[in-house]
Amino acid sequence: MSIRLRKIPQDLPLKGKRVLIRIDGNVPIEKGRAVDGPHGRIARAAVDIDWLSQHGARVVVLTHLGRPNGRRKAAYSVAPIAKRLGSLLGTKIAVSRDLFGPRAERAVANLKDGQVLLLENMRFDPRETENDSTFAKSLAQLGDLYVNDAFSVSHRAHASLSALAHELPAFAGPLLANEINVLSQLEKNTKRPFVLLMGGLKIETKLPVIEHLSSQTDFVLLGGALATTFFVAQGKSVGRSVFDQEGVKLVNALPKQLLKKIILPEDVVVASSFRKDAKTKIVLVADIGSKDRIVDIGPKTREQFIKIISQAKTIVWNGPFGYCEIGSFCSGTRTVAQAIANRTGAAITIVGGGDTGPVLEKMKLSDQFSLQSTGGGALLEFLAGKTLPGLEYIRSRD
User: Fold this and answer.
1) Distance from chain centroid for Cα 307
2) Which domain-ending residue is among 179, 213, 243?
3) pTM to 2 decimal places
4) Any domain includes 224
5) Which among 61, 69, 65, 29 is positioned nearest to 45, based on CA atoms?
6) Which pLDDT tens digit goes with each residue over 108-155?
7) Distance between CA 97 and CA 104 in Å, rounded?
8) Considering just the CA atoms, what is the radius of gyration of the chain in Å?
9) Could you tell me if 94 and 141 lie in one domain?
10) Is a pLDDT exceeding 90 seen at residue 3?
């Protein structure tokens, strides 16, 4: 899908303006600390928050954390996000316990030009996930304009993403605008050969992307449990490997023309269990034993995938090719990641997915692509040509 978004006008005076900016600060919290690397979601959002702050805006940050199901739960407080933001911006960030009403309004009124306030978890109010207009109107009382800088949750029809953008002058933040700009190039100006790589488990979220881009792609390289599901659909034994049972039917319904573009692993790494100390061996797909579990792609497959990647002009990758929760089962994914990074410049390289990000951070590759998308589900829905509710009110209509 190719769309144009309404960006913040360069001549718009921001000094003294109350700017509500929706970010995605939903990162893991461990021992009270936000787990967010140099290229993590909060780190990237902080760049745009700082830009607003430097222009004299009074910045009110909105985010969610986890799934508290509309109830106030201490474990889901955004306090760790405030600490992470503060460390990035070099200032202490206060958290407003109230999302709206007199106390929240007072907290915003007390902001000086350039200061930043974080509202508590949007999902503490059940109306957030209901896209409730009255909740959005209450939030709008705190701002003069609204900025959506959270591509990764823009596929959600939630109040702080969709309804709120209807209540105030609304714009796309620089982070969001850049993601959409790069992704839109796929339809406007696709350079061939176009290689699509897909890993992970759920076929129902990946298949629409494969089908939507089928007329543009030259090769579709599959790994992970996604490939295992294709093996089962072909009647092959996969031992005790994880696969998508419901997805088998979907695979069997794919047109032959599309199946010709799909390349599956020819060899895999199998283990007896998902334990770190499990013994592994490399086998051809035809030789997978009844007690084997596929945990990675094999060396022949890696070699084949690298060869295809090395000739590509456009590369899109979503989802790991192995069980990356255990480092020794992630070698294939790391090999593919490095091959794609090496191709950046000669090719447009777009990578994304919640499970992919941590691997790239550890490899220090996060800034080695044309775009490392912040989105997982949002990226897949956008690539599948679906309308994202969070973008509807910030689309450019001219």
Assistant:
1) 27
2) 179
3) 0.92
4) yes
5) 61
6) 999 999 999 999 999 999 999 999 999 999 999 999 999 999 999 999
7) 8
8) 22
9) yes
10) no
Residues 252 and 365 in one domain: yes
Residue 13 lies in a domain: no
What's the CATH code of the domain at 221? 3.40.50.1260
User: Which residue, 179, 214, 237, sits at the end of a domain?
Assistant: 179
Q: Which domain holds residue 329?
A: 190-383
Taking the alpha carbons at both ends of the chain, their separation in whole angstroms is: 17
User: Where is 299: in which H helix or E strand?
Assistant: helix 299-309
| pLDDT at residue 283 is higher than 80 | yes
Q: How far apart are CA 124 and CA 198, in angstroms?
A: 34
Residues 229 and 347: beta-carbon distance below 8 Å: no
Contact partners, residue 308, CB within 8 Å, separation at least 6 = 193, 195, 219, 221, 263
Same domain, 211 and 260: yes
| Cβ-proximal residues to 243 (8 Å cutoff; 6+ apart), any chain | 201, 225, 228, 229, 231, 232
Say whether both 50 and 74 belong to one domain: yes
Do 128 and 203 reside in the same domain of the chain?
A: no
pLDDT at 78: 98
* Per-residue confidence (pLDDT) for residue 359, from 0 to 100: 87
**Domain shared by 27 and 144, yes or no:** yes
Q: Give the number of domains in the chain.
A: 2
Is residue 170 domain-shared with residue 247, that is, in the same domain? Answer: no
Q: What is the structure's pLDDT at 397? A: 67
pLDDT tens-digit map of 193-213: 999 999 988 888 899 999 999
Q: Are residues 364 and 297 in the same domain?
A: yes
- Examine the pLDDT at 46 and tell me if it is beyond 70: yes
What is the SS3 assignment for 225? helix
Query: How much is the mean pLDDT over the chain?
Result: 94
Task: Give the span between the Cα atoms of 34 and 81, in whole angstroms.
Answer: 6
Query: What are the pLDDT digits (tens) for 332-386?
Result: 999 999 999 999 999 999 999 877 888 898 899 999 999 999 988 899 999 999 9
Answer whether residue 152 is part of any domain.
Answer: yes
The alpha carbon of 24 is separated from its chain's Cα centroid by a whole number of angstroms, namely 10
Taking the C-alpha atoms of residue 65 and residue 171, their distance in angstroms, rounded to an integer, is 23
Specify the 3-state DSSP secondary structure of 80: helix
Residue 242 lies in a domain: yes
